[in-house]
Amino acid sequence: MSATRIVITGMGAVTGFGFEWQTLWEKMLGAEHCVRPWQPQDLQDNEFPVRYAAPVDMTLLPGHLQNHPAWTLPLEKRSRFGWVAASQAVADSGLNPGQLREAAVLCASGAPQHMLADMLLTQAPDGAAPDWQHLMARAAEVSAEGSLRQANDRLARVIADDLGCEGPVINISSACAGASQAIGNAFRMIRRGEVDVAVAGGADSVLNLDTMAALYLLGAASGEQRWGADLCRPFDRDRSGLIAGEGGGFVVLESLEHALARGATPYAEVLGYGSSLDAYKVTAPQPEGRGAALAMQAALDDAGLQPQQIDLINAHGTSTPLNDVAETLAIKQVFGRHKHFQTLAVSANKSQFGHLIAAAGAPECIVTALACLNDLVTPTVNLHEADERCDLDYCAGQAVSRRVDYALSNSFGFGGLNTSLALGKYREHGQ
Amino acid sequence: MTSATARIAIAGSGCVLPTGWGVEGFWSAAREGRSAIAPLQTPLFHSERIAAFGQINDATHQRSRQDVAQNLQRYCPPAVIWGVSAARQALAEAGVEPGRDGLRYGLYCCQGGYTHPSVASYGELLQESRTDNAADMNRLARQVLQERALDPFLVLKSLSNGLLGVVSLALKLECECNAYMQGVAGNLAALRQAHSALQSGRIDVAIVVGAGSELDPLALAALAEAGVIGTDGSRQMLAFDRKGSGGIAGEGAAALVLRRAADLPPEPQTCLTALFAHPRLDALSLPDKQVDLLISSATGTAHKDADLARTLARTGAAHITSSTALTGILSGAPSLVDLILARQMLQAQSIAPIAGLTQPVDTHLPFVSGEPRDAVLHDCLVINRDDNGFSACYQLDLQADD
User: Fold this and answer.
1) Are A181 and B134 within 8 A, CB to CB?
2) Domain that residue B127 falls in
3) E strands within A264-348?
4) Do A123 and B119 touch (CB under 8 A)?
5) Based on the domain organization, do B272 and B388 belong to the same domain?
6) Which pLDDT belongs to residue B1?
7) Is residue B377 a contact partner of residue B257, using CB atoms and an 8 Å limit?
8) Interface predicted TM-score (ipTM) of this complex, two decimals
């Protein structure tokens, strides 16, 4: 452990709830969710089996963000959300351009937003391989807003250029653990003394025909219709799969020394970061939660915390049959030996704003930081009858007022990679 | 020693490159100045303007497949298979066996930039759904969902952490991990994370893997539009040469196993002693002292390489060489490949020439051309530059054990 303390001094979140973290927090404490009926934009027959999602609602865009350049430059949707979230986080931090000059940007932006219609442009009419002239001619017609024209590090570059950050620009690529890994990497970079300030998070949108079709065919996305828009039910016996959301989240991390020197007030302290691999299956978590437990334990070790000090776990909680049981078992492996385990709060956010895939860890880290700041735990909504194998205190139904000194935020991804961040209530004189 | 000053050595390396399977083939090609760039062969499109590519041939690909279990291959685009194979080679050379040797591992991966699934993956499906000017998306959706016309693993194949996931499965690694994207910046981030994890004492062995391919018409179109590759039909990439008319893309994978030098047998080790980076090449920090050898990536375009040469001159290196003309411009493992080459040259005390170089962009700089050159080499710099200007510099020293 190093003596360098790292704090969160700025936050930005774009979700189905809106474009500011304050809205996200308020709606979540009110036990609301923003899942609603959804069909892919390209289809008219209303037959797509995935019928619900948590898309960003552009009608909620506040006036002061309407002229943000993200809405006018040729960018993928995920990059627009990410750029706005990063701008919000920096504005929230109060950092000025001079203070940002040496900052690092760490960004997870997931898989590209495929556009089948664009791909069609490259096909010769007779089905033969197109020649180069045809390809280049049609390539010019490919939407500048689609991934086919954009490298995967576009968002990280846009944010760095816009903010004038000349520090390291790092594109993290860790599926659903991406944003958490970005924040964890930023934390480590500051702790190693490589930078004083980092803007870290992620953005994603998988709400398109081909990605959602593939997620559905893999059995990950829910096609359930029984519960209407309440179908995302983490840890519930009737959970049926993930409900995709879209958006972005970023935090500004600073060394405490740097933050205090400029008069900033930290929201929370980042204390540790752990990662692990399941080495089990590409599409399923290790059923006993071994990898997830390793990540949580690594985060605790990194933070110098004991399991009994943790008050809250912001769970990955995808509402998939496999994840929620495995995560519960993992939590028991790490915390089950201690008495306080009976009162450990576990809360899942995805039933409120959907699964933001690569970006998921960022708003969830923000919610965890706010729980530490306010001693309030957001509820796991739509959890009515817990799966008998899911027997923890999931804070079902409504927000809970309770002391949160230390918390973990879990994010797990396809490919079997696991990340856990350890956060703590900011205290002037240390933990 | 587990401190910020612990020396970190390259204990093993592996690669799957256009030069073939393995470091030996790469080193032979490098010493002979034999470029592996060849006429582009793909059923996806015909082009007279982009006629060459640093391509993995079928024999090399088939050899690599032997290193990946059959049940994993369905999740793998070719580059991921090459990455697993490169990692296995590096582990074998390092003499370590995850899960059996009691050592703590870290896995850090970097995948190339354009990870959207190949147009070829969608080709048939798109043709069947074609109408006069567009696609019948409702029909397409029905085919996908009811007839499973879309490979359900496509979304997994396009995930840019696929390399990390599959390497971990193939090698049974439950360790700490990170996955990065994109060229030099991704390689640097992975190497930095590995380096610092070893120095912190958190792990004993770091596996760093990079892999990527741009063999896709739209990826190549994007590279052409960005000016990264030339479109004059050239079949040879000329690095730092006044006749250089443009870059040529390549594909492949490379892996390094890093360890603390103090944990290795008492024999000379190639140590990675410093890593620098900056968004602009001209602002890149460089070591104060002169080095014996410099390896630099090249663009293949004469005026850009001449600009690059001005930065190289600042190093005062005694010899300058480049691997780019051997393999083409790599998206997933550019720095790893150059670090492998650097290690080979330091160990052999011999400098591989720049393949095809006859008219250097700067005659005052000590570019090595023609035959390999024997020299006393204690240290080496590697300078890599992404097409967006992001640049990294790595310093390696050949060090005897204390």
Assistant:
1) no
2) 119-155
3) 268-277, 312-315, 345-348
4) yes
5) yes
6) 45
7) no
8) 0.92
Specify whether the CB–CB gap between A396 and A386 falls below 8 A.
yes
B389 and chain A in contact, CB less than 8 A: no
Please tell me the distance from the alpha carbon of residue A85 to that of residue B128, in angstroms, as a whole number. 40
Q: Dihedral sign for Cα B8, B9, B11, B16, please.
A: positive
Which of B115, B156, B390 is the closest to A169 by Cβ?
B390
Task: Tell me which residues of A are annotated as active site.
Answer: 176, 316, 355
**For residue B217, is it within any domain?**
yes
**The pLDDT of residue A128:** 67
CA atoms within 13 A of residue B43's CA, in its CB half-sphere: 5
DSSP A66: T
Cβ of B218 under 8 Å from any chain A Cβ? yes
DSSP letter string, B178-221: EEEESHHHHHHHHHHHHHHHHHHTS-SEEEEEEEE---SHHHHH
Q: Do B166 and A415 touch (CB under 8 A)?
A: yes
Tell whether B149 and B164 lie within a shared domain.
no
pLDDT below 50 — which residues of chain A?
A: 1
Interchain contact A208–B (C-beta under 8 A): no
Closest CA to A184 of A165, A201, A159, A196: A201
| Stretches in chain B below the pLDDT threshold 70 | 1-3, 113-125, 132-135, 147-160, 401-402
Query: Which residues, at least 6 apart from A286, have a Cβ–Cβ distance to it below 8 Å?
Result: A278, A279, A280, A292, A326, A416
Which tokens hold the place of B362?
């700067």
Task: Go through B215-237 and write b for each residue having 16 or more CB atoms within 10 A of its CB, e for each that does not.
Answer: bbbbbbbbbbeeebbbbeebebb
Instruction: Give the pLDDT confidence of A192-224 residue by residue, as tens digits.
Output: 999 999 999 999 999 988 788 888 888 899 999
Q: Exposed (0-12), middle (13-18) or buried (19+): which is B100, by Cβ within 10 Å?
A: exposed
CA distances from A147 to A7, B114, B123, B248, B265 (A): 34, 9, 17, 22, 48
d(CA B346, CA A370): 53
Query: For chain A, which domains are there?
Result: 6-112+150-425 (3.40.47.10), 116-147 (no CATH)
Q: Torsion angle of alpha carbons B73, B78, B84, B90, nearest 10°?
A: 150
Are B141 and B178 members of one domain? Answer: no
Residues B281 and B135 in one domain: no
The one-letter code for the residue type at A160 is A
The dihedral formed by the CA atoms of A201, A145, A154 and A264, expressed in degrees to the nearest 10: -40
| CATH code (residue B77) | 3.40.47.10
